[in-house]
Amino acid sequence: MGKLNVEYRNYIESDYEALKTMILSLYTEDPSSQTIRESNIKRTVEEYFLRPDKLTIVMILCEGEIVGYSIIVHFWSNEYGGNILHIDELFIKESYRGKGIGKDFFNHLKALDKDTVALLLEVTPNNTRALKFYQEIGFVKTRNSHYIKTLT
Questions:
Q1: Beta strand extents in 93-137 (DSSP E only)
Q2: Half-sphere exposure of 110 (CA within 13 A, CB side)
Q3: With 60 as the cut, is the pLDDT of residue 61 above it?
């Protein structure tokens, strides 16, 4: 099999149904401690358009077909002394997994922002396939634990 033609582009309004379907698939396959609602997805899209310096939604295409997405949050870290891209969500349709798209995506992220000093992501403990992949491409578990307190 030859190399797949993978492209990345920013989300556009006509992507909404594809994005929503993939987000719901992600939360079905790999449940979070939070229930995903369509209102959350709509608010994320609104935030993307209002604050592009804070949030990026990347659509992943293969041979012209949308096969995945990623939601990326940009922030500054005093501890690391630079910009960090937090990969809030990354999803690739099951039939496209294991074909090098994920690795290509992370190479794309390196080129996205030259001032980025680190990439950050979370993995649910049961998602062993993703955990193994992230470790293979150089992610390491941090020493600190993260805690969250919801305000709503």
A1: 116-121
A2: 8
A3: yes
